[in-house]
């Protein structure tokens, strides 16, 4: 059965733009929305586009310092860097009206959260969101305001007592973890490339939460080169048991597409087919553990044409309750639009041609295998805090 889905959208979301040379190019969001439209996703009777408003200063202030918000506003007007807030760095260049653009992204994620919390829809998405690195008092890792953390904080303000946040971006969800590190109402789970080889250099298994919240920060640090089957083995060994134990009222998920093998900024080896399977697993878990209440956010992803639009169109289709056939061709009109818009050759199919299966961790632990070592390190670090046995 199809699920009700609200997609928070405004064309202004593409104004979050660090400039033509920056890897986080808004064209990836533009191409995703165009591909989804060509497949008729937004014409489905159970899918609606929701209007959004920028997050107010007061709302942003629930997770960000007032002086930082003022610094973002100032930088967006003067276009002068401010090193004390990491504004104007190569990762976080200043751009005109950056506060307005960033506040709109943040407002879209709150709108998605409110759609789910208030019962307007079972699922809601902000595909332009997932800016999970921003810290309380500074920009970080291409992220100005942390819309993911803001959505979680908003849910807590409405009275939610248990919110789970699962981050499948190739980079550690450090900003969200930081903001809720001492809060046992929030379970943060991040599966990412090992900090030994990738920014931001955090997300080790031993980062498990502050006093009173031990075991509520969960990190699965995967070795470079991890492929679909090994990634899914790690996911299956950690995420479902923790979510079933925690029983969140809402599941918030961040879906950076940069774990794909073609991504230029990272070293994991997933396919679009593997990512599609991840979305299916998270959808299932939202139904099983959170009463179907699922907030879906975008994230990283720097192969702008070949990967992100296909991955996130599969994500939106999955969230609508009617997944696309992975073997279908991309629509001709979309391919023509891609050529006109980017000059690149678009992908012909919605698949990378992979068959995605995995062997569950419970079938046996290989102490010589780097992925199994990562799984076991995480389970040993956090499972006991939840009364769970980390052993096989």
Write the layout of secondary structure elements.
Layout: E1 5-8, H1 27-38, E2 47-50, H2 57-60, H3 66-78, H4 98-117, E3 123-126, H5 147-157, E4 163-167, H6 174-179, E5 186-193, E6 217-222, H7 228-246, E7 250-254, H8 272-289, E8 294-297, H9 308-319, H10 332-342, H11 370-382
Parallel strand pairs: 1-2, 1-3, 3-8, 4-5, 4-7, 5-6, 7-8
Give your account of this protein's structure:
- The two termini are 35 Å apart.
- This protein has helices at 27-38, 57-60, 66-78, 98-117, 147-157, 174-179, 228-246, 272-289, 308-319, 332-342, 370-382, and strands spanning 5-8, 47-50, 123-126, 163-167, 186-193, 217-222, 250-254, 294-297.
- The protein has 11 helices and 8 strands.
- The chain is an alpha/beta fold and 392 residues long.
- It has an 8-stranded parallel beta sheet with strand order 2-1-3-8-7-4-5-6, sandwiched between helices.
- It has a single domain (5-386), classed as Arginase, Chain A.
- GO terms for molecular function: histone deacetylase activity.
- Pfam families: Hist_deacetyl (PF00850).
- Residues 22-317 form the Histone deacetylase domain.
């Amino acid at each position: 059965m199809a699920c009700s889905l609200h997609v928070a959208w405004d064309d202004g979301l593409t104004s979050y733009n660090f400039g033509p040379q920056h890897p986080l190019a808004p064209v990836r969001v533009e191409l995703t929305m165009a591909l989804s439209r060509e497949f008729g996703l937004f014409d489905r009777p159970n899918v609606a586009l929701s209007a959004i408003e920028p997050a107010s200063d007061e709302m942003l202030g629930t997770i960000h310092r007032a002086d930082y918000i003022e610094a973002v506003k100032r930088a967006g007007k003067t276009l002068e860097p401010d090193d004390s807030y990491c504004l104007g760095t190569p990762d976080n260049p200043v751009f005109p009206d950056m506060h307005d653009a960033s506040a709109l992204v943040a407002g879209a994620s709150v709108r998605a959260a409110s759609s789910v919390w208030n019962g307007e829809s079972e699922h809601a998405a902000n595909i332009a969101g997932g800016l999970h690195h921003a810290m309380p008092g500074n920009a970080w890792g291409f992220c100005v305001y942390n819309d993911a953390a803001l959505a979680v904080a908003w849910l807590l303000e409405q009275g939610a007592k248990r919110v789970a946040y699962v981050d499948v971006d190739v980079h550690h969800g450090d900003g969200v973890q930081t903001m809720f590190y001492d809060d046992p109402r929030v379970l943060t789970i991040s599966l990412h490339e090992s900090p030994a080889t990738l920014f931001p250099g955090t997300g080790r298994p031993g980062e498990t939460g502050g006093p009173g919240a031990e075991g509520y920060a969960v990190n699965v640090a995967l070795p470079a080169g991890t492929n679909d089957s090994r990634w899914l083995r790690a996911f299956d060994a950690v995420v479902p048991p923790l979510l079933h134990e925690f029983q969140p009222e809402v599941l918030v998920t961040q879906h950076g597409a940069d774990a794909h093998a073609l991504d230029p900024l990272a070293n994991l080896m997933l396919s679009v087919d593997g990512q599609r399977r991840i979305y299916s697993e998270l959808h299932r878990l939202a139904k099983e553990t959170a009463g179907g209440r699922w907030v879906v956010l975008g994230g990283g992803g720097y192969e702008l044409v070949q990967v992100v639009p296909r991955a996130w169109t599969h994500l939106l289709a999955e969230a609508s309750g009617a997944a696309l056939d992975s073997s279908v061709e991309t629509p001709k009109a979309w391919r023509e639009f891609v050529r006109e818009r980017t000059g690149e050759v678009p992908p012909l199919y919605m698949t990378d041609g992979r068959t995605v299966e995995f062997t569950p961790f419970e079938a046996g632990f290989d102490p010589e295998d780097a992925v199994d070592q990562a799984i076991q390190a995480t389970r040993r670090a956090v499972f006991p805090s939840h009364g769970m046995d980390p052993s096989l």
